[in-house]
Design a protein that fits this description.
The protein is an alpha+beta fold. Helix 6 crosses helix 8.
């Protein structure tokens, strides 16, 4: 399929990228469309270096435009005739430098290929996701089949043991009868002895067969335990780690409980079979008895497998968390937190009989206060699992000199120190006893709410990168995060807070902020220090968390509806709004004001100074957009915001959120009248250079200042659209004071 045909069949989100690409006038979309077949057949790359070829291609292009113009004349399409004549005149201006035109067309074709490549990659990811889900379902079905097969084999083993006991009883009866009768007939004696010998041989073979089947059964059990403990449980723990930092992963344990319990039941039945063999050997044995020789090894192996299964079955189902925290695993001293443990081997007879106790690690000394022991029970679980739900625990740091800050000489900040909370219990059933212990994921313990933001950053980083659930020294040598993994984690933050994550375009804009312009961000890495070290205003996490808090508290509905583009720098904003119809605006987060959102619109290229929680706590953002006004000539107020980018009528986008009362009856009338009406010549917003940008601003040359004041006097390529404008301190040109909010800047 031709490249242009493929582009026209793209989903709406990608057609929007195509629309943005052809917003420039260098290659009009009409020309690209009507001459698509011819354009794609030419060697534009070679023409960028070959003046003769470029000249020929330019002449043929002009001839094709003449042909297309004739068609429009025949079809009486006046507007298209006018446009084609205008395009031809513009292309004729390249006759002195046709290679430049060839370079432009080649650039457009390459950008189109990038869009198609992105679509292909997304489709591959979707197919991979579907394939992974299919594989997971297939693996579960395979496991279910193996569990069912194991259950059948245990039932067969039970029947075999019963048959063995019947055979032994038959032999015992005939042997006792033979001894009591004591016949003198030698021939009869010999016949009876022959019968007894045949029975004992048969019994011996039966014992050997059962022992061999028991070994095979334990082989199957060992394989299942390996699958459950080393794969299914590890996968679940990784999913739980990710879910703690916002991933929408399934962490339900009900299916896992069925599998663990099924295997445990089989092993306890195996212990019963071995006990029955002991009874049979106690009643009757003989030289070279296979049970005496092999049973001890079977007993040891069964005990070992059961112990492994039980020790792995005790888990922390709900990680420690505070009711009002940013997320789990951040705990504050003297503030209550909760946690829930669960044993995946569920025996109803153990309900309320196993007591779980809580204790802390020894890294920094803390006393655990509150209800520190709880019985595992089925009443506190919605699904009927065996759980111990600790709801009223608190931590208090010991002040005694024997405590010390830690066991390591490595200096870590409080929010980089990781701790483990341990849970202990004793499993006892049918004479089998084993001590069980599990622990939480690493937690950060703070003493002040001001540390919570930095502590949550540590939890994000640790659970994103570390799969060692007991690595409390993770921050002693902190690894960098690959961009794909980091981007996924960022999206989870918005998804968990608002039920809408970040799309590819938003993530690309964030990547551009962190790394500058790159062909491919997948090989880029984000360091811990760049993400959060020091918790300073320059920290990426401080900036992003400010946006998250604002979106969650004040903008959740608008964000969930996809009305906020959000992550757009000023140069990209200018590129997107260029050539859009009058009144088109977009919403973006401030790059320099923590927790700020603003909007820019087409007409005179205004942007409003960011609105923060101070404003949004007084009036919803959709009401700001609805009531925002500037004073045009003769002080006539007008709302310049007409179409949400790319072309959605404002009321269609935000109307369902509007309050019913308007005008003087609006509950926000005081704010509207005092802060949402601006004279055209109003205070300009001032920005300091953003320290998080990947490159510093260019020097403020006279030529650049002239361009900013009179852009129409310069050619379109004076400043490339994808090059960020430097943040100029415009206050040096304005004598009026800067407003607290709502000021306008050019």
């Amino acid at each position: 399929m031709a490249q242009w045909e493929s582009l026209l069949k793209l989903p709406a989100s990608y057609r929007l990228q195509l629309d943005d690409l052809y917003d420039r006038d260098f290659l009009p979309m009409d020309v690209r469309h009507h001459l698509s077949a011819w354009i794609e057949k030419q060697d534009w790359q070679r023409a960028t270096q070959d003046h003769a070829l470029a000249s020929v291609l330019l002449q043929v292009l002009l001839e094709n435009l003449d042909i297309q113009h004739s068609r429009f004349v025949q079809e009486e399409l006046f507007l298209q005739q006018h446009n084609i004549r205008r395009y031809k005149h513009k292309f004729q201006m390249h006759q002195d430098d046709p290679c430049k035109l060839a370079s432009t067309i080649h650039w457009y074709l390459e950008k189109e290929k990038e869009i198609l490549k992105d679509v292909t990659l997304d489709e591959q990811v979707q197919r991979l996701t579907v394939t992974q889900e299919t594989m997971e379902i297939s693996c579960q079905q395979d496991l279910e089949c193996k569990m069912s097969s194991l259950k059948n084999e245990v039932q067969c083993m039970e029947h075999a043991v019963i048959c063995l006991e019947e055979q032994q009883d038959e032999f015992d009866f005939k042997y006792q009868t033979h001894m009591l009768e004591a016949t003198a007939d030698e021939a009869l004696k010999k016949e009876q002895f022959k019968t007894l010998q045949m029975l004992i041989n048969k019994l011996n073979e039966c014992r050997k067969s059962i022992l061999m089947d028991m070994n095979k059964l334990l082989d199957r059990v060992e394989g299942l335990i390996h699958r459950l403990v080393d794969k299914e449980l590890i996968d679940w723990k990784r999913r739980q780690q990710k879910s703690c930092i916002g991933a929408p992963d399934n962490v339900c344990l009900d299916q896992m409980e069925k599998w663990f319990t099924g295997v445990a039941v089989c092993l306890f039945q195996m212990l019963e079979f071995l006990k029955k063999l002991d009874e049979l050997v106690g009643k009757m044995t003989y030289p070279n008895d296979p049970v005496k020789a092999q049973k001890p090894a079977l007993q040891t192996r069964t005990n070992s497998l059961l112990q492994t299964l039980l020790k792995s079955s005790f888990v922390v189902e709900t990680q420690p968390s505070m009711p009002q925290g940013k997320g789990p695993l951040v705990l504050r001293t003297n503030v209550q937190f909760s946690a829930k443990t669960r044993i995946l081997v569920k025996f109803p007879e153990l309900n309320h009989s196993m007591t779980v106790a809580v204790c802390m690690d020894r890294y920094r000394r803390f006393n655990v206060l509150g209800t520190r022991t709880k019985a595992l029970n089925m009443a506190e679980s919605h699904s009927g699992g065996m759980v111990a739900d600790f709801r009223h625990l608190t931590l208090r740091e010991q002040k005694s000199g024997s405590g010390g800050k830690g066991v390591s000489d490595i200096s870590l900040s409080v929010t980089e120190e990781l701790h483990l909370i341990y849970f202990d219990t004793l499993f006892e059933l049918k004479g089998f006893s084993v001590q069980l212990q599990t622990c939480s994921l690493p937690v950060v313990i703070i003493s002040n709410s001001s540390q919570q933001q930095s502590a949550w950053a540590s939890i994000l980083w640790c659970n994103m990168l570390s799969q060692d659930h007991k690595d409390v020294m993770f921050f002693a040598n902190t690894p960098a995060a690959p961009w794909p993994q980091f981007a996924e984690m960022l999206s989870w933050q918005f998804l968990s807070a608002t039920k809408r994550g970040l799309d590819g375009a938003q993530l690309e804009m964030i990547a551009h902020r962190l790394f500058g312009k790159q062909e491919n961000y997948d090989t880029c890495n984000v360091t811990w220090s760049k993400f959060s070290k020091g918790n300073t205003p320059e920290s990426f996490w401080v900036w992003l968390d400010g946006i998250l808090v604002m979106v969650k508290m004040y903008l959740e509905d608008l964000w969930r509806e996809g009305l906020i583009m959000g992550f757009v720098n000023k140069s990209k904003e200018k590129s997107l709004l260029k050539r859009k119809q009058r009144g088109t605006f977009l919403l973006r987060f401030s790059e320099s004001v923590i927790g700020g959102i603003t909007f820019s619109w087409v007409e005179i290229n205004f942007t409003v100074q960011p609105f923060t929680k101070v404003d949004l706590s007084q009036i919803p953002f959709h009401e700001i957009i609805r009531n925002f006004q500037i004073l045009e000539a003769e002080n006539v107020p007008e709302n310049p915001l007409l179409y949400l980018y790319p072309n959605i009528p404002k009321d269609d986008a935000f109307g369902k959120f509007y309050t019913e009362k308007t005008g003087d009856d609006s509950p926000y009338i005081k704010y509207i009248k005092t802060k949402l009406v601006f004279p055209l010549e109003s205070t300009l917003e001032t920005y300091s250079p953003d320290p998080m940008l990947s490159s510093s601003a260019e020097p403020q040359t006279d030529e650049l200042l002239q361009y900013l004041n009179n852009p129409n006097n310069f050619s379109a390529d004076f400043l490339p659209s994808d090059s960020p404008l430097p943040d100029l301190n415009l206050s040096s040109f304005i004598s009026t004071p800067i407003q607290a909010c709502g000021g306008i800047y050019l």
